[in-house]
Specification:
This protein has 850 residues and is an alpha/beta fold. Helices cover 42% and strands 23% of the residues. The relative contact order is 0.04.
Length: 850
């Protein structure tokens, strides 16, 4: 097995050397140098044991240019190939590196298959050239000997003399020639000793031209050509020779020697094919067969370089909600759409510009601005027409950047086109937009945030602010939410909307979360030490945090470090985190809850999987998003949905906090539906810790949430009340009378469960909306009498029978029914009752008075 070649990686950044070493470690032995001086020292020590150098141009002490210059002045290392690392730098640097002897370039960020392919090709070419050089030296030495021995009849070997007349003729052929070329002497003689008869017809012209040039110039020559053996097989021959003085002929005479290079040619051909395959892999997208990101960048840069005076535009596209298409119709359909879209781009822009697939469903093209027709271009991109007609309309948006600086890196041009694209995402009436400088402002802000984030942590610029949580019915502060605020020394208070999305995208949010957690734990410890009122404080867990294997250890470490009760540090996760990876999130939160942490779900009701997340996740509290109450009329659908959520949470034994409360009307409505714990600007904005401490000193203080658990009477299984297979549900549907289970919330009677006979009764009374029933008292002629009877049942804690008249719309005669009811469960805020209805005879005197 051949030993590994040695590759020297010269780069001052450890991470770059480690990345390249990881890429090449399977095929090559790796040497490393952290600067130019170390690079030259390794080269002096190892010499030509180094097969190739990967050289960063920008290094301390001695840069890459100086290393190239020194290498070319030292013969022992001058021939070692050098691949220069670039990062979209000035083209002048590339030209200078080439002038100093660089062999090739690779670009950052590294694409492993491209880097490996280029290095492998360079080393292979070096080996082939070395073999050729050895052959050349050997051939030249042999040539000198042949010139001395050509006239010797007893010469053995593949040597011959050719007389160049009207038709080349062999004057002398060495004894081994016939075996060498695989053609018998008889065959040559039969063809008039015409050496050319066995040469491939397409190569004869080149061979004759080489012989004639040698005859005229009297200089040595070499040429390669194909020759057919007598059995029909093909071989490659390398011929070299020179004109000699041959007294027996007045015509020019060439002495020549042949060598068989068939194997070498086959190897070279295989190498070319391998390079071609590598080029395809390196430059073409495997799914769509059009240029990939790297190739598109290279081709576009070359196009602009050749047409500096022209006006060009760069366009990017993507498919609206492509992930949804993949999930709904399958990846195979998604791939078909991408392939079809690529072919449409090829049809539109082939020959007039460049085009390629950048990633996923994002494509790009560059073409002359004069040919750009955005409206027709967007309409013309309709992949998979049959699929769109029958199943789903594919919406494609485009962003356009008119190129003003041809030297700008192509990826930056794409970024600007993408900014324009982003401005029309989700807009079905506007399919494209052109870049304007105003679109760069968010990007510049993001770049500034990234530049300053580490310094901000080290300088203590991030602070934990607190927003109080109130019991609306008592005015007590019962908790707080900790929110990160950036107090910049120059810019002042920076809005979280500027930095939180950036940190979530680049992963820095995890470091910020941990920083805030520690601030909150230290704050709670100080409250305890100073004898201040202490309330639980909720801190945020981001999606990034849930993938941290050390999350639990970190949180428990903070609890131990500051010696605070674990129930005072509550963990808040947004509902949207459930959608991304529910199994991971459930596992992490279950473990934290088992350790004693109180788990809250933030923004419940604003996501796409609210009911699923509520069913599966281990939770202690829900925070409802008041987007449902943005309208003026609190009794519209949003209010009904919010009331249902509060009621559902109570049945699950989950406390509820409504956040985002901004008006008195919202606060009052929340109280009427039983949601007493609130948070929002109507009560208090997020504030510095010292302001919160002053506020809580003035507030009526109560650190506990009210006990809202429902206690059943007797052996009734309240938690099983809403299970379809529970005994209560089965019993309710099998009893022979209309029956209902309802709750009493401060005099409001809400239907919780009803059997089929009860619903039929309401329909028979003319209530077509019986399937959507909500408030029980809406169907009674005298709701106040019903309320009095229920209060009596509650006070005496015994079942009671009474009569009620039920409304029959459009009929003056109400339906009289006997009602037998009992309280079956209660909590501090509500009671649950069971009632069965039966017909009442009109002859009963007691009945008539009702």
């Amino acid at each position: 097995m051949a030993s590994k070649k040695n590759v020297l990686i010269a780069d001052d950044l450890d991470i770059n050397r480690a990345l390249l070493a990881e890429i090449f470690k399977e095929e090559y032995n790796i040497y490393e140098a952290a600067n130019g001086a170390e690079t030259l020292e390794v080269l002096r020590r190892e010499g030509k044991n180094i097969a190739l150098v990967i050289l960063d141009l920008l290094m301390p002490e001695i840069d890459g240019f100086e290393v190239l210059s020194v290498m070319r002045r030292q013969p022992e290392i001058a021939d070692i190939p050098v691949v220069v690392v670039t990062a979209a730098s000035d083209p002048a640097d590339e030209v200078r590196a080439l002038e100093l002897g660089a062999t090739d370039f690779i670009s950052k960020p590294y694409v492993p298959r491209v880097v490996i392919g280029r290095v492998r090709n360079i080393i292979a070419r070096g080996e082939i050239e070395a073999v050729r050089l050895e052959n050349k030296i050997l051939r030249e030495r042999t040539m000198a000997q042949l010139q001395l021995q050509a006239i010797l009849d007893n010469m053995v070997g593949c040597v011959f003399l050719v007389e160049l007349g009207e038709k080349p003729r062999e004057l002398f052929i060495s004894k081994g020639f016939y075996d060498f070329v695989g053609i018998s002497k008889e065959a040559f003689e039969k063809n008039g000793n015409d050496f050319f008869f066995s040469v491939a017809e397409e190569d004869r012209g080149e061979l004759l031209s080489a012989l004639q040039c040698a005859a005229e110039s009297r200089e040595s020559f070499c040429v390669e050509f194909r020759s057919y053996k007598e059995d029909g097989s093909l071989m490659w021959l390398h011929m070299q020779g020179a004109r000699i003085e041959y007294p027996e002929s007045e015509l020019p005479v060439i002495v020549a020697i042949c060598s068989d290079v068939t194997n070498e040619k086959l190897s070279e051909q295989k190498l070319k094919e391998a390079n071609a395959r590598l080029r395809v892999k390196a430059y073409y997208d495997p799914l769509t067969s059009i240029f990939n990101r790297e190739a598109f960048f290279d081709m576009t840069a070359e196009l602009l370089k050749k047409n500096r005076g022209g006006s060009y535009s760069l366009i990017t596209w993507n498919i609206e909600r492509f992930k949804f298409i993949n999930e709904l119709f399958g990846k195979e359909m998604g791939d078909r759409i991408l392939i079809d879209l690529a072919q449409l781009l090829k049809k539109l822009f082939g020959g007039v510009g460049t085009y390629g697939r950048l990633e996923a469903d994002r494509f790009a093209a560059c073409l002359p601005t004069a040919l750009l027709e955005p409206e027709s271009m967007v309409k013309g991109l309709r992949p998979c027409e049959d699929f769109q007609r029958e199943q789903y309309e594919i919406v494609i948006h485009a962003g356009i950047y008119e190129i003003t600086d041809c030297d700008m890196p192509i990826d930056q041009m794409c970024d600007r086109a993408n900014l324009a694209l982003r401005s029309v995402k989700g807009k079905y009436m506007q399919r494209y937009a052109s870049f304007t400088e105003n679109m760069r402002l968010p990007l510049l802000i993001e770049q500034q945030v990234v530049r300053e984030m580490n310094q901000a942590v080290e300088g203590g610029q991030f602070r934990a602010w607190l927003q109080p949580q109130y019991d609306h019915s008592t005015g007590k502060i019962i908790g707080a939410e900790a929110l990160a605020r950036w107090v910049h020394p120059v810019r002042g208070l920076i809005s979280p909307a500027e930095f939180i999305p950036v940190f979530e995208k680049n992963g820095f949010i995890a470091a910020l979360d941990e920083y805030i957690w520690e601030q909150v734990c230290a704050m709670i410890r100080r409250w305890l030490d100073e004898g201040r009122p202490v309330v639980p404080v909720s801190v945020n867990l981001s999606r990034v945090d849930t993938y941290n294997p050390l999350l639990e250890k970190t949180l428990l470490g903070l609890i131990k470090k500051y010696d605070i009760p674990i129930e005072l540090l509550r963990l808040e996760i947004t509902e949207s985190a459930y959608v991304e990876n529910p199994e991971q999130l459930i596992s992490v939160l279950s473990s934290l809850r088992e350790r004693g942490f109180f788990i809250e779900m933030d923004d419940f009701g604003s996501g796409f999987s609210s009911l699923n997340s509520l069913k599966d996740m281990p939770l202690d509290l829900l925070k409802l998003d008041l987007k449902f109450l943005l309208g003026e009329d609190r009794y519209e659908r949003g209010g009904s949905i919010l009331a249902s959520l509060v009621r559902m949470a109570k049945r699950l034994g989950l406390p509820v906090i409504a956040e985002g409360v901004e008006t008195q009307a919202q606060a009052d409505f929340l109280l009427t539906i039983g949601c007493r714990i609130v948070q929002g600007y109507f009560y208090a904005k997020p504030m510095p810790v010292e302001d919160f401490e002053r506020l809580i000193e003035l507030s009526v203080f109560s650190p506990q949430l009210p006990d809202r658990s429902i206690r059943a009477k007797g052996d009734l299984d309240i938690e099983g009340l809403w299970r379809p297979d529970s005994q209560t549900s089965l019993f309710l549907n099998f009893i022979p009378w209309p029956a209902v289970i309802f709750s009493n919330n401060n005099g409001t009677f809400e239907i919780m469960l009803a059997n089929k006979r009860f619903i039929k009764l309401l329909r028979d009374c003319g209530h077509a909306d019986a399937d959507y029933m909500f408030r029980l008292s809406e169907y009674m002629c005298d709701p106040e009498r019903f309320r009095e009877q229920i209060d009596l049942i509650r006070e005496c804690a015994q079942e009671r029978s009474f009569f009620m008249r039920w409304k029959t719309p459009g009929d003056s005669q109400a339906l009289l029914m006997r009602c037998r009811a009992a309280m079956i469960a209660e909590s501090s805020e509500q009671q649950i009752f069971f009632a069965a209805l039966g017909t009442a005879p009109e002859s009963d005197g007691e009945i008539r008075q009702h």
